[in-house]
Amino acid sequence: MDLNSPDTRQMQLQARLSRGQPLNAAHIALEFEVSPDTVRRDLIALERAGQARRVRGGAVPVARPAAPLEERLETEVPPGLVAAALSVIGDAPTLLLDGGTTVLALAEALPPDPGRLVVTPAPRVALACQRRGIEVVLLGGTLSPRGGIATGPGTEDQLTGIAADIAVLGACGLEAEFGLGADDLAEAGVKRVMAQAAVRTMVLTGEGKVGRRARHRVIGCDQFADLVTDAPEARTAAFAAAGVRVHHG
Amino acid sequence: MDLNSPDTRQMQLQARLSRGQPLNAAHIALEFEVSPDTVRRDLIALERAGQARRVRGGAVPVARPAAPLEERLETEVPPGLVAAALSVIGDAPTLLLDGGTTVLALAEALPPDPGRLVVTPAPRVALACQRRGIEVVLLGGTLSPRGGIATGPGTEDQLTGIAADIAVLGACGLEAEFGLGADDLAEAGVKRVMAQAAVRTMVLTGEGKVGRRARHRVIGCDQFADLVTDAPEARTAAFAAAGVRVHHG
DNA sequence: TCGAATCCTGCAATTTCCTGCAAGACACCG
DNA sequence: CGGTGTCTTGCAGGAAATTGCAGGATTCGA
Questions:
Q1: Is the CB of residue B140 inside 7 Å of nucleic acid strand C?
Q2: Phi/psi class of residue B208: alpha, beta or left (left: φ > 0; alpha: ψ in -120 to 50)?
């Protein structure tokens, strides 16, 4: 009475794979009472569908780095940092948000406000805001391989039509003399234009980046008004001396 | 005493399906003392009613509840559909990918090819491709509230500079006379321009959308070359007659 | 390096599917 | 009562999918 078609077999195998279970071809052949060739064909189908990775003698689940970032949000970004950033933002109606885990945590914490507009080159941030019912304008461009924001001359062009209240920039490195830096040249360009497209620029970063000098300069410390960080005051004194309002989260 | 009409048979079969029971056509033919052809016709009726998914040798219950998007990927997009789409795509170096769950499943299954370029207005698709090591150009614009793709005149402008090999479009509705449709006006515009920006356009959609007429027309059936779907051939005959290559997944 | 297991390719046999068609059952109407 | 139309059913013929097998290549382990 058990239906034995390629579809049903493959669905059962897929279920096991999604449970993280490796598949032994010979064993499955016995279990489903089909030849090993048939099992092999099933595994080929699953592999073509991206559901499995074939290895000698069977198949294993494809590595799914699905949610590491989502979870890192809750654990690695201190709640106080996000809260401080929110209070600096206030109810500014138009925000320009950078990418990166820290800014993403901020986006996840934004109050659901249908009257607010978020402009961002980071697809993750865009999705987070959309989930919260906030209107989003996504900036296009070439996705930078690491940081995950759109970059390129086209991206910077799109920003010329934007007039935001606050730009929130993450950091690959932040140092008092050098200023805010990024490790990717294209990213640095976009961040720089973002800062220019906003009335006020805020830098939001964890203490790990403070004092580090990144490869490319985005803007100097005279170009942004606020710094939100959880670094101790001793390491932010230089910024305060340069005229930056420092908020400790 | 047992009334044996198509309706009573189908109601009994539906009851078994809702219990999660797979149906074996040959077995049912013996049980109801009818020919396998009649059972096949019953199963076709159930499939049209959305109560079952036909597989070789019988039918299985259709996946029930609407899970969140991430999980629907694994359960509701049949592996065969994705595999068929992959084979149509071949190794075309430049792809233009739409949004939607089905296209997203395709993106998740793309082979990691550093020489390939994917252009998309869908942030989810962009992230999926980036995870797989594929170069991504993200199209910017206002995020449509439902489908999750960037829309607007700016988005369409960005496409003028694109020359892709294949555009893969999802569907809110697909009907032979009406063509490919979308429920959001802005989305329809972007999809239309996407089709124009590619040498060849392929429509990828599950059977649920076939036969449904959406609110806004994207392109007519003479504007796309390939249709990949898991709908039965009976429901795709009209597309084949219109000159569309139909691939069944 | 050798043996064995596994994999790939093509092929033929079987099963299942699709399509069209004609016969029977039944309701309805003149 | 007879004719007509619709619905359903089974059947035939061809198309398509699936499967197991044979032969040769490849890989793994000793």
A1: no
A2: alpha
- Could you tell me the distance in Å between the CA of residue B25 and the C1' of nucleotide D6? 27
Residue of A nearest to B119 (CA): A142
Mean pLDDT of B154-176: 91
- What are the pLDDT digits (tens) for B99-140? 988 899 899 888 777 789 999 999 999 998 888 878 999 999
Predicted confidence (pLDDT) per residue in B40-73, tens digit: 999 888 888 778 889 998 898 876 443 444 444 4
A36 min Cα distance to partner chain B (Å): 20
**What's B69-248's CATH class?**
alpha beta
Distance B8 CA to C27 C1' (A): 19
pLDDT of residue B71: 41
CA B178 vs CA A19, B175, B181, B190, B219: distances in Å:
42, 5, 8, 18, 8
Asked if the Cβ–Cβ distance from A5 to B55 is below 8 Å, we say: yes
The pLDDT of residue B74? 45
Query: Cα-flanking dihedrals φ and ψ of residue B151, to 5°?
Result: -135, 175
pLDDT band at A182 (very low <50, low <70, confident <90, very high): very high
Instruction: Count other C-beta atoms under 10 Å from residue B93's C-beta.
Output: 12
pLDDT value, residue B49: 78
The full set of domain ranges for chain A reads 6-61, 68-248
User: In this complex, do A14 and B124 lie within 8 Å of one another by their Cβ atoms?
Assistant: no
Best CATH choice for the domain A6-61 from the list 3.90.79.10, 3.30.300.20, 1.10.10.10, 3.40.50.410: 1.10.10.10
What is the CA A111 to C1' C9 distance in angstroms?
Answer: 60
| A-B contacts (CB, under 8 Å) | 124
Read off the pLDDT of residues B181-232 as tens digits, 9 standing for 90 and up.
988 889 999 999 999 999 999 999 987 788 778 888 999 999 999 999 887 7
Rounded-to-integer distance, Cα A41 and Cα A45, Å: 6
CB B43 within 8 A of CB B13: yes
Task: Give the list of residues 6+ apart from residue B188 with CB closer than 8 angstroms, or none.
Answer: B181, B182, B216, B217, B218
Name B53's bridge partners. Answer: B60
- Which residues in chain A are contacts of B160 at CB distance < 8 A? none
Which positions in strand C are less than 7 Å from the protein's CB atoms? 5-10, 15-20
Mean pLDDT of A180-187: 92
Residue A1, pLDDT above cutoff 60: no
Is-contact B82 B180, C-beta < 8 A? Answer: no
From A2's Cα to the closest Cα of chain B, the distance in A is: 7
* Nearest chain B alpha carbon to A43: B79
CB < 8 Å to B128, chain A: none
CATH of A68-248, one of 3.40.50.2300, 3.40.50.1360, 2.60.120.260, 3.20.20.70: 3.40.50.1360
Q: Which residues of A touch B83 (CB under 8 A)?
A: 45, 48-49
